[in-house]
Write the structure tokens for this entry.
Amino acid sequence: MTRRIENLISKTMLAAALVAVPGAMFAETKSVAQERAEVDAALAKKVRHELVMLPWLGVFDNLAYRVEDGVVTLSGQTIRPTIRSSAGNIVKRMEGVKQVVNNIEVLPLSRFDDDIRIRVARAVYGYPALQRYGLGAQPPIRIVVKNGEVVLEGVVANEFDRNVAFLRANGVGGVFQVTNKLRVEGKRDL
């Protein structure tokens, strides 16, 4: 009878150990995923800093990035091919970057688009309610013009500023279409 009890106890302990192991493995996997997310967040912060510090980056350039497991994907639009190549090269040399996918679009050369860029910038940043956005080294409202179509990118303080920027850009002659992708600070989705 003692052997039966010992056998029963050992089988119970073995079953308990088998049940506990998958839970322990899941907890370990979860902490690895959290650690990877923290590393990616720190890397994203460094990537942002390097992109903002690019020389010749201006109000007519819109750069974006995404970091996943050390792979940095660059996207956006620029009017200068040197910004595209510089962004890729700088990010490629950063510690912790495994690979860079450079999807930054170089906008076509066009006097027509250049004229629209200047007029939209004057209309938006020259309006008294929006002048404060033009004061910094890197204005938060980006004006992307391609083939006469304007896209407003960036972040503004409130919905009123978002709407005013759209109306000001839409009032510029020669613009075929205006797409308002401005985000309101603190809001996730518009």
User: Anything to note?
Assistant: The chain has a mean pLDDT of 88. The two ends are 72 Å apart (CA to CA). The domain at 111-184 is CATH 3.30.1340.30 (Histidine-containing Protein; Chain: A;). The helical segments are 2-52, 81-92, 111-125, 159-170.
